[in-house]
Design a protein that fits this description.
It holds the Pfam family CbiM. The chain is mainly alpha-helical and 223 residues long. The chain has 10 helices and 3 strands.
């Protein structure tokens, strides 16, 4: 779920842009960019994944001109590339949507928050729970981080979008429609969870070393 045209007050747009910039900036500051500079296969995978996500975002349901329903795949990006690179990819995709005329440019901060920051934070929280508290098991990682994590992140993202409308929209028609769109959240959750879990399963089977949050020596008994 993301915004396609401006229906929020200016102060909400500014606040979301500042919050997104602060969180993304901190994530990028802490990331060891030297690794990305020297790892050319990682660069290719990141750019390829960004392009694929941008193409998948074209498959969107948009009954009204200000709100779109589509897959985010931010959970998959976060698990595969870690949060800083996932936010970089998400930011590039959101910029691409603006360049293609799908989204108004003042909504960059809002959409980055809804489709990038919120699901990435949820994913990081669930991954840390699995990493520190749950048994070292491949299926625990796959189902909790992949399937359950994607469903929960989608719910959090949708509730964030609904909350922003309730907080910053003044048009009564927009306020009425957002309640109707909130009913689609239970339908978005399983689809996002299935696609994320399926793609993550394929990566863990064929290229587990591509998934940077997955330690094959820890989660798979190689003895």
């Amino acid at each position: 779920m993301s915004f396609a045209s401006v229906v929020l007050e200016s102060w909400v747009l500014i606040a979301c842009a500042a919050l997104s910039l602060g969180i993304v900036g901190r994530a990028w500051w802490l990331f060891p960019w030297r690794r990305l500079e020297t790892d050319h296969p990682l660069q290719h995978r990141l750019l390829g994944a960004t392009l694929c996500v941008a193409l998948l975002w074209q498959l969107r349901a948009q009954a009204v001109d200000w709100l779109s329903l589509h897959l985010m795949l931010t959970v998959l990006l976060t698990l595969v590339f870690t949060a800083p690179l996932a936010l970089l990819a998400n930011g590039l995709v959101n910029v691409a949507m603006i360049v293609l005329g799908k989204v108004a440019w003042p909504l960059l901060g809002v959409n980055l928050l809804v489709t990038g920051v919120v699901p990435a934070l949820v994913t990081v929280g669930i991954w840390r729970l699995v990493d520190r508290r749950l048994p070292d098991n491949l299926f625990v990682y796959l189902f909790v981080c992949g399937f359950f994590g994607a469903a929960l992140a989608t719910l959090a993202s949708g509730l964030c979008a609904v909350g922003l409308v309730l907080l910053g929209a003044t048009n009564p028609e927009v306020l009425r429609l957002v309640h109707d769109y909130a009913l689609f959240l239970p339908l978005l959750m399983p689809s996002e969870a299935f696609i994320t879990g399926m793609l993550l399963s394929l990566l863990l089977v064929y290229h587990p070393h591509w998934v940077l949050t997955f330690d094959s020596h820890r989660y798979i008994d190689t003895k």
